[in-house]
Amino acid sequence: MPMPHYPIICYRQGCGQLALYKIAARWSDGITGELKTYALSCEACLPEFFRQSREKQKTCRLTPGEVLEAPNIFRLATGQHDRNLERQAQLEEKLTADEGNRPAG
Ligand SMILES: [Zn+2]
Fold it and tell me: What global pTM score does this model have?
């Protein structure tokens, strides 16, 4: 689905900032596949949304044959088709590492 041509706002209620990133995971049932969107997020809310998305992905129940990959972060670009979105691998690594460094509790 192409991105709409109007500003996309962060999913967090009350945030109101423009969404700069999309958190999505590749899903496939072996026949068709798609990007399953978890959140559209501004920069500030991204760490929290990314963490939540990974938790959701882990607990997602799949039927045999279904594959759901770990969520990735994509940079949103107006008018871009999903498959053309630029993946932010370094950002994913950074947020994952930050998470690991956080004291327990
Ligand atoms: Zn936000």
Answer: 0.83
